Amino acid sequence: MNIDIEDIAKVVNKKLKEGLSTAQIEKEMKVGKDTLRKKLNRANYRYNKDLKQYELISNTDITLSVTKQKNTDVLDKNNTNTTQSVITQRNTPVTQNKIELTEDEINILKIIARNYKISTRSYELEGEIVARSVRTYKNVLEQFASYCKENNLSQKDSIALALIDFMK
Asked: Which of 49, 57, 114, 129 is the most buried (most CB within 10 A)?
């Protein structure tokens, strides 16, 4: 039997209005711990603590805004106030979550974004393959091999991309 996620949300919200907790509802429905929460979260339902209900959040409802503000609590090395950027994520109709970032952190994020753009370019890795012997540190090679294995990457292609990026 296949039950629609909207129907599940309606049933859960009805039971929440009756005063049951999500854990109690899961026991009553004879499903595993956190099963309902996970299903609802995967379907973009978020729990609103104020309303004590799950609400559907569409991807278009999520926005980020960056504002600068004076923060009197943050002092730099010279004991002067620093300006911080605040990123506010608005999940309509859920309440706001704020993450405060310093100017240095904003700059680091910009660098990460630039590097991501560079790394997502497609390179044409074709042609004759040659063997080269290089000397490097054992622990670095072990970390590299482990990284490639965990991320299901070809060591040959990863080295080629790293060399291309390094030369740029």
From this structure: 57
Contact, 16 vs 28, CB < 8 A? Answer: no
Tens digit of pLDDT for each residue in 115-149?
A: 766 655 566 677 888 888 889 999 999 999 998 88
* pLDDT tens per residue, range 18-34: 999 888 988 888 888 88
CATH 1.25.10 fits 122-168, yes or no: no
Name the one residue in this structure whose structure tokens are 């608005």: 90
Domain spans, the chain? 5-56, 61-119, 122-168
| Cα–Cα distance for residue pair 140/168, rounded to 1 Å | 22
Which pTM value belongs to this model? 0.37
User: At CB < 8 A and 24+ separation, what contacts does 101-108 make?
Assistant: 102/74, 106/66
Find the radius of gyration of the CA atoms of the chain.
Answer: 25
